[in-house]
Structure formats: C-alpha cells, structure tokens
Specification:
CATH class: Mainly Alpha
Helix content: over 70%
CATH architecture: Up-down Bundle
Number of helices: 14
Order of helices and strands: HHHHHHHHHHHHHH
Number of strands: 0
CATH superfamily: MFS general substrate transporter like domains
Oligomer: single chain
Length: 412
C-alpha cells in the first residue's frame, strides 16, 4: 500500500524542525494556561490583581519584543529561542510555590520575558527559511503546529487536574519547556539568519520600520490580539462563573485549535492567493461578531461551538496578516520589524486584558462587547493602508519609503 505523501510544507527539514518545536511548546502552554487564573483566585489573589497579572505579562512582551527582535538580527535566531523556553520552564515551576499576588505577577512578567525572546525570533526564522510566495502557508502551519499542541494540552490538563489537582500541571509544563530549550539548541543551530549576516556595512534607518505599508500591518496586528487579552484575563473566570467544569474550560482553549488544524491547508493557501486585505477585512469583522457572541450566549456547549467557527476564520486571517507583514518587511531588519509588530500587537492584548477585568466587575457581557467593537473599529482604520500597499505590489515592486528593498509577492 503506497504511503501518503507528506504535506509540502513539512518536506522542508528546517521548517519541519520549527513546526515540531511549536507543537511541543503549544502542548506545554495548553496544559496550564486555562487554569492559571483559577489557581491564583484559589490562593487568594483578587480579581483586580488577576487583571494586573494578565496585563503585566503582556506589558513585559510589549517592552522587550522590539529589542529582543533586534537581538536576533545580530546574534542569530537560535539563542533567543532556546533561552526563552528555558525562562518559561523556570516560570512554570515557580507557579507551584506561588502564594501571593506579588509572586504571581512576578512570574507572569517572567513568562512575558520568555515570549518576548521566542516570538520575534521564531517568526523571523520562518521568514528566513520560506520563499515569499509560500509564507502564508508557512505561518498557517506554524500556528497549526502550535494549535496541535494546544489541542492536546488543555483537555489533558483538564482531565489530569481532576484527580491530581492543578499544581502538578505546572511541573509537567516546566519539564516540557526545558526539553524544548535543549532540543532547540541542537536542531536550530545553523538555520536561518546567522551572526555576521546583518549587513554591518549598511545602516538601516529606523524610519524603515514605519513605512505606510508596515503601519497598516501594525494597526491590524493591534486588533488581532484583542481576543488574546480576554483569554489571558477573564475568560476562565467567566466560564467558571457560568458553570463550566475544568474539562470544559480546557476544551474551550482546544476548540479553536481543532478548527485551526482542520482548516489550515485551505486557509494557508487562501492567504497566499489574491489580495490579502479583503480576507482581513471580512475575517476580522466576522471575528468581532463572534467575540460579542461569547458574552451574549452564556451556554457552555454553544460557546465551544463558536470557538470552532473562530478557529476556522483565524486560519485565513492569521497567516494572511503574517504573510503580508513579511512581504513588506526589509529582510535586513526582519527581526526588528517582527519585534515591532509583536510589540504593538501585545499592547493590544495588554489593553484588552486589563480593560476586560475592569469591565467584568460591572457586567459579564461588557468586556466582550467592547472588545468586539474595538476590533471592528481598528480593522476599518487600518485596512486602507494594507489595501494601498497590496495594489502597489500588484502593479510594481513595492517602494518602502525611504528604501526600496522588498520584492513583489508573486501570489498577488
């Protein structure tokens, strides 16, 4: 019987290594994240302090992602990625012993440092090893791999938490993250942009980060992370308050991943086909409506079903925005640009996380209503710049003021 051929994205050895690491990290993340705020509340942390926990985690990323992205341009991608996973292992273990709001906040800051090390370097690494006309598919597979880990992590955490309690989950996550750090040092060495390849003889001005094409991506990126802030802040508490079990809370983080994995082959190809601005406009407006529906429909099984729809929409919007960003970025400063994009996006998540906990004190619906409205407004504000840049790329090589360094994307 003939063997089923491996998907095209998985045939590239470098990208395959990246995707395996993303899956492992998704599993470790998924084991604990649905229960972190619940553990904090059990140990006497107030709702206000939980909001500070969520926002401090995101603020740490906001402050550090740009310098750490620039660092990956100078020293290579491997060291920041491995160091980030090692820091995450330390933070995960720390939650086993945390017993005060101050400790929880400090450990969340440490987790923010971890993500600030990992994400700009990992995203830039994907751009390093992937041709321009396949980046939408590559980013879709990156998130699908992370989602594969998330698919298993939250339900497994939910089932383990029932007989063992929630604290042992953090020990398992710490072990996985430490293993991923060690594996990354071996697997990723020599892959992607290396030290000494940053064109030291050519100084790239800071203004190259703030072209109109990139500003459009940054605005859209701010809105894209709104829902993440809700998950980091009030999501688990909201589900717990409307009667969800630990298993259902875990599943609520996995339904998105299920849909993302199922529809990734389709979504990734769509992201590389035609104008991306249209997909971003329609997809984000649909996403805004779904966010609001979470607060309106307080029936747990229906909320899980909405998560499936949200994940399906994200298979198009997430890789489309990532591929657009990579296509208009100066390759000499890919890490700085990815860091800037991640910083602005994380600021959106931080605002959402803090605002969500404040609004939740007044109404369970209000955080979702405001978050959906903000996403719609931001999308309508930024989509014009993305559209203009894509039309320019379709007609001729995109001119990125003050330099012309980006080639047109053949997929457009």
């Amino acid at each position: 019987m003939p063997r089923m051929p491996m998907p095209a994205m998985m045939r590239d050895p470098a990208l395959r290594m990246i995707l395996i690491l993303a899956a492992l990290s998704g599993g470790a993340f998924g084991l604990t994240i649905p229960f972190l705020t619940l553990v904090a509340r059990e140990r006497g942390v107030s709702l206000g302090a939980i909001g500070v926990m969520a926002s401090s985690y995101l603020i740490a990323q906001t402050v550090l992602q740009l310098p750490f992205g620039s660092l990956s341009d100078r020293i290579g991608r491997t060291t920041p990625i491995a160091a980030g996973f090692a820091v995450e292992a330390v933070a995960s273990l720390g939650f086993v012993f945390a017993n005060s709001a101050t400790t929880f906040i400090a450990l969340r800051v440490l987790q923010g440092v971890s993500l600030a090390l990992i994400m700009p370097a990992l995203r830039a690494l994907v751009a390093d090893v992937t041709p321009v006309n396949r980046r939408g598919q590559a980013y879709a597979w990156l998130f699908a791999s992370f989602s594969g880990g998330m698919l298993l992590g939250p339900p497994l955490g939910g089932f383990l938490a029932a007989p063992l309690g929630r604290s042992p989950l953090f020990i398992v996550a710490a072990v996985i993250n430490l293993a991923v750090a060690i594996i990354a040092l071996g697997w990723l060495r020599g892959i992607g942009r290396q030290p000494g390849q940053h064109d030291s003889g050519v100084r790239v001005p800071t203004s190259a980060i703030f072209t109109s094409a990139l500003i459009g991506a940054f605005i859209m990126g701010f809105g894209a992370r709104i829902l993440e802030g809700m998950f980091a802040g009030v999501w688990s508490i909201y589900l717990d308050d409307i009667g969800a079990s630990d298993v259902q809370i875990g599943l609520s983080f996995a339904t998105w991943s299920i849909a993302f994995m199922l529809f990734t082959p389709i979504g990734g190809r769509l992201a590389d086909r035609g104008f991306r601005w249209r997909k971003l406009l329609i997809g984000n407006l649909v996403m805004a409506a779904l966010i609001i529906s979470y607060g309106v429909i307080q029936v747990v099984p229906v909320i899980l079903a909405i998560g499936l729809i949200e994940g399906a929409v994200a298979t198009v919007t997430v890789p489309a925005l990532d591929a657009y960003l990579a296509s208009v970025a100066d390759p000499r400063i890919q890490g700085r640009i990815q860091g800037t994009y991640a910083t602005i996006g994380t600021a959106g998540a931080a605002v959402s996380a803090f605002l969500g906990t404040v609004l939740y004190k007044h109404s369970q619906l209000l955080p979702f209503l405001v978050a959906g409205g903000i996403l719609a407004i931001i999308t309508l504000s930024g989509i014009g710049l993305v559209r203009k840049a894509e039309i320019q790329m379709a007609a001729a090589p995109l001119v990125i003021e003050p330099m012309a360094t980006t080639l047109p994307d053949p997929a457009l």
